[in-house]
Amino acid sequence: MKQPTTLDVHEIMEQIPHRYPFLLVDRVVECTPGESIVVVKNVSANEPYFTGHFPDHMIMPGVLIIEAMAQAAGLLAIATVKDRPKDGTIYYFVGIDKARFKRPVVPGDQLTIRATITSIRSSLQKFDARAEVDGQLVAKGELLTAPNKVGRD
Length: 153
Known about the structure:
By secondary structure, this protein is of the alpha+beta class. It contains 2 helices and 6 strands. Strands 1-2-4-5-6-3 form a 6-stranded antiparallel beta sheet, with helices on one face.
């Protein structure tokens, strides 16, 4: 069965275990298993983190931009290896190198995240990831994910 090239939020929740308020991917717009993925996150003023970061100057926390990039990488790993939470596998975000932030992300922005596999082994996957708003780079980094088999009761 061919992997779909797009996923809506309900299909994303079948692939990864994250839920509101920590699901940071709204749509997969393009996915080529074994190669790359493009996802979007619509940033709204209603996001719970904006009440404290910062009330008078709302900025999406950089760690959440990185987390959104990691969720995109996890979706690509799942599409490539085909081990999913329902099969007993969860992909953990295990590392980041060369992380850089270029400009703030604010309410009303649509974050477009692109992740490309640079290496994949049974125990570790490495990705180049970048987040953009309107074609402008806002963050980038090299991400590492690793599968973890979880027990089923």
